[in-house]
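[Discussion] Sanity-checking designs against the backbone

I'm trying to build intuition for which residues belong where. Below is a structure token string of 707 positions. I'd appreciate it if someone posts a full sequence so I can compare it with mine line by line.
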């Protein structure tokens, strides 16, 4: 465990004016509060806050941040309170500690419903003081470094959360070294075999070619020396996870993967960066399409550098990054450079970016966004995606996530421009709206009066802003159609339970579901944002759950089960009475019933001991067996309503409906239909297939849902 004097010396190395007395007091207070507590490793718990503080000294942060690290678990895990911390260490530190505590309690890997709100709270805390997230990231990094002492289940949960949230967030904050380490530590837990394989291949490669890093480093130094250029040159093999990700993205094996080595050249000025680039390209052949100039077009997190990939020694592709010392400090520290100290004063780095503008725009957007799922989608794109920088005809820069299209570009300028877009020119040439934009391209949007967003645009747009605007416009444009469709769906659902969908009933249901009126309720049902069953349940919960009285109960529908075994229908094939079935035993879960033709059974061909010979009980069943139908139908007025009516006429209930493809002339939809047996299903299918606007119908088989 690091001694308090050693910690103070770490701070004093970059901040001679540090308040060492306050750090000593915080050290003593934290040790006292955590007295008797231990970590999973058996070490005293206070060793963790000290290590977090030491990590933050590497980023040369101020006293308040270091003290917050020492105290960051006191309010949560000890008898300490906000008031006591404020009394001893001041309001600034108390609020920082409280902020870290609130971040720790957020369940960022929770369900989608809660995740958007929790992300909002995360960004609200960050917008108040970004030092809160710096402490939290350091806290997560040390926990990941010592994760081996946790139980396996918790290791997986923490690693997944780190990979999905904290590592991308560190990257978005410009702290790429931390992102790489967090990813690799998570990779070690989530896929240890793959990581070990990468390392073994590296060892084999070094045996075959020798250690290329010092050789190529010396080659670069020689080239720069001949050009009379002074620069620091360093190189390294890339992290195992970084290599694995490239293998997955490019669908290539390790032996075919290029640029697994990275080299960095640090110069004294912008001019020297470009002179170094010229010297390197003069000596080695550059790889087309692998050049990026982030000096003339910096990333939004302040990152500046020139990236180029060349064919180096023995034809090996290597990536070279060229930047100045100040650029390098920002590239290493990210947002931490905004608070970094040197010789007792805040460092003035012209490239350090305070990302509060980005964070504030996200929190403001959350308040305005009707659909919080759209907000969450936008946040993840902002965090996870690299960006491309494109220009308007006037030279203004528009930033988009990688994979952005001219349509995203148009909506990024203004919603009005996006909505009236009819085409685009990229570098003067007309291109389709689904074209993926690249760095540095000039984009001109062509608009037309009267144009409105099209349903197919949802498949083209990438950004949350564009998707939200398109969805809102389509909802408004098709409101009347959705209301008519919703009225038909609710009519069928009400008749199924022996009731009528009167205006009074719809008004009452809308009130129960916290909607404005019956029109909005029908609109939501017609646009599949609300199911007709939900409307029935809101008014008649007992009837909605009531099942037809039949001879065969669900508990005894299957014959041949081992005594006491639980039985469930496998959702991959959705077997129904009348079809040949087989059972597969799953320890701890019981027996899952599959259709004899289910492809998932191939996974158990070598495990005959798990197979159970089953058959359906003879008799009559209730319409309780849900089957998903994949229907392609013409996109014309009244078609879907007519299909729903046909299903209702067959005494089958629609339990869910989901559009999976919308085109101007047709659409595909998944409809969950509840049937009694195979004969009942056959009748439903026959009546639907007979409709002239139905192009195809098949049962939806989803192997991703196999148990």
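Best answer:
Here's mine. Compare freely.
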């Amino acid at each position: 465990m690091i001694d308090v004097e050693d910690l103070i010396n770490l701070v004093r190395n970059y901040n001679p004016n540090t308040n060492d007395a306050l750090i000593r007091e915080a050290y003593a207070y934290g040790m006292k509060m955590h007295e008797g507590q231990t970590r999973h490793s058996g070490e005293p718990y206070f060793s963790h806050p000290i290590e977090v503080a030491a990590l933050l000294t590497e980023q040369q942060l101020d006293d308040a941040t270091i003290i917050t690290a020492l105290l960051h678990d006191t309010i949560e895990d000890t008898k300490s309170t906000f008031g006591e911390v404020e009394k001893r260490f001041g309001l600034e530190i108390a609020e920082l500690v409280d902020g870290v505590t609130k971040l720790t309690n957020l369940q960022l890997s929770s369900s989608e419903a809660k995740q958007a709100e929790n992300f909002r709270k995360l960004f609200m805390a960050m917008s108040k003081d970004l030092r809160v997230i710096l402490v939290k990231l350091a806290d997560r990094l040390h926990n990941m470094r010592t994760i081996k002492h946790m139980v396996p289940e918790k290791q997986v949960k923490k690693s997944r959360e780190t990979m999905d949230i904290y590592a991308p967030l560190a990257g978005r904050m410009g702290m790429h070294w931390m992102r790489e380490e967090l990813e690799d530590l998570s990779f070690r837990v989530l896929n240890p075999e793959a990581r070990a394989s990468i390392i073994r291949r590296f060892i084999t490669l070094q045996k075959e070619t020798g250690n290329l890093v010092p050789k190529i480093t010396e080659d670069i130094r020689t080239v720069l020396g001949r050009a009379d250029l002074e620069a620091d040159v360093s190189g390294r093999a890339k992290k195992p996870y970084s290599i694995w990700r490239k293998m997955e993205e490019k669908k290539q094996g390790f032996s075919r993967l290029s640029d697994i080595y990275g080299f960095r050249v640090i110069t004294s000025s912008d001019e020297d960066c470009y002179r170094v680039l010229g010297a390197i390209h003069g000596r080695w052949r550059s790889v087309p399409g692998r050049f990026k100039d982030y000096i003339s077009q910096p990333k939004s997190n302040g990152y500046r550098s020139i990236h180029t990939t060349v064919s180096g020694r023995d034809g090996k592709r290597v990536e070279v990054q060229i930047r100045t010392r100040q650029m390098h400090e920002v590239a290493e520290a990210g947002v931490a450079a905004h608070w970094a100290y040197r010789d007792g004063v805040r460092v003035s780095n012209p490239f350090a970016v305070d990302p509060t503008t980005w964070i504030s725009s996200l929190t403001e957007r959350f308040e305005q966004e009707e659909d919080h799922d759209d907000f969450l989608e936008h946040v993840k794109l902002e965090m996870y995606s690299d960006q491309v920088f494109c220009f308007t005809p006037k030279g203004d820069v528009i930033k988009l996530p990688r994979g952005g299209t001219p349509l995203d570009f148009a909506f990024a300028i203004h919603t009005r421009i996006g909505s009236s877009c009819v085409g685009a020119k990229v570098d003067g040439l007309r291109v389709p709206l689904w074209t993926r934009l690249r760095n540095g391209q000039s984009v001109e949007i062509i608009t037309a009066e009267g144009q409105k967003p099209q349903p197919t645009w949802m498949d083209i747009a990438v950004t949350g802003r564009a998707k939200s605007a398109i969805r809102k416009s389509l909802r408004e444009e098709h409101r009347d159609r959705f209301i008519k469709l919703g009225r038909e769906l609710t009519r069928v659902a009400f008749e199924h339970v022996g009731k009528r969908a009167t205006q009074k009933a719809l008004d009452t249901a809308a009130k129960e579901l916290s909607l404005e009126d019956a029109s909005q309720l029908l609109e939501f049902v017609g646009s599949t944002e609300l199911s007709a069953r939900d409307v029935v349940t809101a008014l008649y919960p007992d009837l909605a759950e009531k099942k037809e009285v039949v001879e065969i109960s669900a508990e005894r529908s299957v014959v041949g089960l081992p005594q006491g075994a639980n039985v469930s229908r496998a959702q991959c094939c959705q077997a129904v009475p009348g079809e040949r079935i087989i059972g597969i035993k799953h320890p701890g879960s019981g027996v899952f019933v599959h259709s004899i033709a289910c492809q998932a059974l191939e996974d158990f061909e070598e495990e005959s001991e798990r197979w159970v010979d089953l058959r359906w009980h003879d008799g009559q069943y209730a319409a309780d067996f849900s089957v998903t139908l994949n229907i392609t139908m013409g996109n014309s007025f009244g078609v879907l309503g007519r299909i729903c009516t046909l299903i209702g006429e067959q005494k089958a209930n629609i339990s869910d409906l989901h559009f999976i493809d919308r085109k101007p002339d047709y659409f595909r939809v998944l409809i969950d239909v509840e049937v009694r047996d195979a004969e009942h299903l056959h009748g439903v299918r026959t009546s639907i297939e007979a409709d002239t606007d139905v192009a195809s119908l098949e049962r939806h088989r989803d192997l991703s849902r196999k148990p």
